[in-house]
TrEMBL record:
It holds the Pfam family Oxidored_molyb. This is Sulfoxide reductase catalytic subunit YedY. Residues 103-257 form the Oxidoreductase molybdopterin-binding domain. InterPro entries: OxRdtase_Mopterin-bd_dom, OxRdtase_Mopterin-bd_sf. It comes from the Bacteria. NCBIfam families: PRK05363.1. Coiled coil: none annotated. Gene3D superfamilies: Oxidoreductase, molybdopterin-binding domain. It comes from Acidiphilium rubrum.
């Protein structure tokens, strides 16, 4: 995933800062409040210690916070202007290019080992599910992290709607591939369309989520409008964006990143600080917005919900790459 190693990861750990304080600080800085500016740019030790406050963002309900994000929200602009969406280019700065993503009409095909395959419009699907807000941490395999409020619905609801046969053991997700609007599709070595997979047990775990919004607005195009996968205990690449097809299959599906870099990225991709990739450490992560680094935690801190999924498995590198 074309990563540049960041030697500044050894910065001292500083405390958490809620979003509205970040915002106030920016307002105070007036014209300096550019989207890409983090605390690194502010700099002084005094400014940093003045911001050592941890409170929950008052804008989100206890229900939204029930998965204990334990970190302040990433400022909206920082989260929405630092993306991975290789269909629109390999840099983090694709949010403008992604505005070309065609999202209307949007349909999702549900097929494979299901009672009756069907295609459903995004609008009709939204009428059949109950949406909620969840504040989750997100940990990219490149060792950066955000904490954001997603809107969406439990993936288990989607599985119920699909009515899989008992022979279905895995799900396979496919993202849109539209050569007219996605310049990344001309990069030859990638096996487009983007595709990912999960076990049925993972997909029906309470944490597995289908995202349709972010910060109380419809999903921004650069974040995978109108509908994407969200799996907070796994590296971000498992969470495919702009989904057009969900297949239920018998065998473990090979994924986009396994085909691209089989020695780097696997099927499981559960977060674990103890297993570095071949090229960099996973011990710490950089917080987008503040640029501080903090220790990475196994399953991205979601063990209480997901560790039982893997209890019977060999706890070796393959489970964590
Ligand atoms: N279709 C598609 N989905 C994708 C990607 C991508 O390049 N294409 N990148 C993945 C990676 S590596 C990460 S970290 C997250 C980033 O999501 P965000 O930009 O909304 O934070 O999307 C994931 N889903
Ligand atoms: Mo990622």
């Amino acid at each position: 995933m074309l990563i540049r190693h960041r030697p500044e990861w050894d910065l001292p750990e500083s405390a958490a800062t809620p979003q509205h304080i970040v915002m106030n600080r920016r307002a105070a800085l007036g014209g300096l409040g550019a989207a890409t500016m983090g605390f690194g740019a502010i700099g002084t030790a005094q400014a940093q210690s003045a911001m050592k406050v941890t409170i929950e963002d008052p804008g989100y309900s206890a229900a939204a916070m029930r998965f204990q994000p334990g970190r302040p929200l990433t400022p909206q602009k920082d989260a929405e202007r630092y993306n991975n969406f290789y269909e629109f280019g390999l840099s983090k700065d694709i949010w403008r290019a992604a505005q070309k993503l065609p999202i209307e009409p949007w349909t999702i095909k549900v097929d494979g080992l299901v009672e009756k395959p069907f295609t459903i419009s995004f609008d009709d699907l939204m009428k059949q599910v109950k949406t909620e807000t969840r504040v989750y941490r997100h940990r990219c395999v490149e060792a950066w992290a955000i904490t954001v409020p997603w809107e969406g619905f439990a993936m288990s609801d989607l599985v119920k709607l699909a009515k899989p046969l008992s022979s279905a053991k895995y799900l396979r997700f496919t993202s849109l591939a539209d050569a007219k609007t996605m310049p990344g599709l001309s990069i030859p070595f990638f096996p487009w369309p983007y595709h990912e997979g999960l076990t049925m047990a993972e997909a029906t775990n309470e944490l597995a989520f289908v995202g349709t919004g972010l910060y109380n607005q419809p999903m921004p195009k650069q974040d995978g409008a109108p509908i994407r996968v969200i799996l907070p205990w796994k590296y971000g690449f498992k969470s495919a964006k702009s989904i057009v097809r969900i297949e239920f299959v018998k065998d473990q599906p090979e994924t986009f990143w396994q085909k691209t870099s089989p020695d780097m990225y696997g099927f499981w991709a559960n977060v674990n600080p103890k297993f570095p990739t071949l090229r960099w450490s996973q011990a710490r992560e950089r917080i987008i917005g503040t640029d501080e680094t903090v220790p990475t935690v196994i399953y991205n801190g979601y063990s209480q919900w997901v560790a039982p999924l893997y209890a019977g498995m060999k706890q070796d590198r393959t489970l964590f790459m």
